[in-house]
Amino acid sequence: MRRRASLGAAVVSALLIIAIVLGSRLLRDFDSALLPYAVATVFLAFGVTYRYMVWISSPGARRLFRQGWRSFFSAENFRKAPTALPRMIATYLGFQKFLGARSRARWAAHQLIFWGCVLAALITFPLTWGWFTFTSSTGSGPGYEMRIWGFKVLGFDSLSFFGWALFHALDLAAVLVIAGVSYFLWRRMKDRGAITGQRFGYDLVPLIALVVISVTGLLLTFSAVFLHGGGYEFLAILHMVSVVFTLIYLPFGKFFHIVQRPAAVGMQLFKYTALQSDQVFTCRRCGEPIDTAPYVENLKGTMRDLKLDFDEWAEYCPRCKRVLRGSAYLTHVKKGFK
């Protein structure tokens, strides 16, 4: 499996390199100063593909992956609930409403980080690959043209509000990320539950990396506007190192859930369509509803794949499982200590 994953990751990386070369018009629009960022994205593509292929090779993830895509491409599901998939993409991926059930503050902070990172990725990745270019016919502005793959998309005045917002979109993304990360750092220093279970490399390093990227990015703008470029080279190197480190770290740390999360949308659709068809599985002992029948059957199949010889326990609700375990303890263990 690891050899297959390595081969798949190498193919994806090669395709990305080809896309960079072609999208930048055979590197004519490629900025050599951004080469470290581009190399880091190639490593990112390799790492994400490798980790994803290894992840879906496990029985549980493989079943999740297959059922998700089967539901995604199901014409019957689309016919029964044509708006279900767009709504789940918006609410589950975009606005992550499931986080609001845990804490509104955590949901708001997560939204700030999510949209800040999305905005930054939509700008920096194409720029890094040479797909986006901003050129001025006069060499110094204020009139600029934005081109994608060499084709002019629009012209704008850099002194207008639109031009200012376009050139400072990364600063806005940095402010959003800093605000969201600040809450999570505060929570991890004050919340007893978060402190107890947190790990430095897994929980704190990603937050610190986001802060460093955002702060150094803002300092680059501050240096250019207020310090006439003072300290710009040092800040640029520090910013580059932090970005490259984060991109390489992403597939192998907490950030990998960004890649995993879309796969869960298909499973949510799988459960939703079953509920719409009244395919509800009830507990064998008390008769209370547990989940959808297809989901319970999928869970039992995963347990059989893992060679767990108690897949029938999936047919009981959590309360009845505790009662049955307690009864078994009293019957087979406690009676031996009279």
Q: Mean of the pLDDT scores?
A: 85
Largest sheet: 3 strands, antiparallel
Helix percent band: 55-70%
| Strand-pairing-aware structural class | mainly alpha
Spell out the helices and strands N to C. HHHHHHHEEEHHHHHHEEHH
Report low-confidence residues grouped into runs of 5 or more. Answer: none
* Spatial arrangement of strands, main beta sheet: 1-2-3
Radius of gyration: 25 Å
Number of helices: 15
Q: Termini distance?
A: 53 Å
How many strands? 5
- Strand residues, percent: 5-15%
Categorize the overall geometry.
Answer: elongated
For this entry, give a set of tags.
three-stranded antiparallel sheet, mainly alpha, single chain, 338 residues, 69% helix, 7% strand, two-stranded antiparallel sheet
Q: Can you put this structure into words, describing what you see?
A:
The chain is mainly α and 338 residues long. 69% of the residues lie in helices and 7% in strands. It has helices spanning 2-23, 35-55, 59-72, 75-80, 84-94, 97-100, 104-129, 161-167, 169-190, 192-197, 200-226, 232-249, 257-276, 293-305, 318-332, and strands at 132-135, 143-148, 151-157, 280-282, 289-292. The strands form 2 sheets. The protein has a 3-stranded antiparallel sheet. A hairpin with a 6-residue loop joins strand 4 and strand 5 (289-292). Helix 2 (35-55) runs parallel beside helix 12 (232-249).
Summarize the structure.
This protein is mainly alpha-helical and 338 residues long. The chain has helices at 2-23, 35-55, 59-72, 75-80, 84-94, 97-100, 104-129, 161-167, 169-190, 192-197, 200-226, 232-249, 257-276, 293-305, 318-332, and strands at residues 132-135, 143-148, 151-157, 280-282, 289-292.
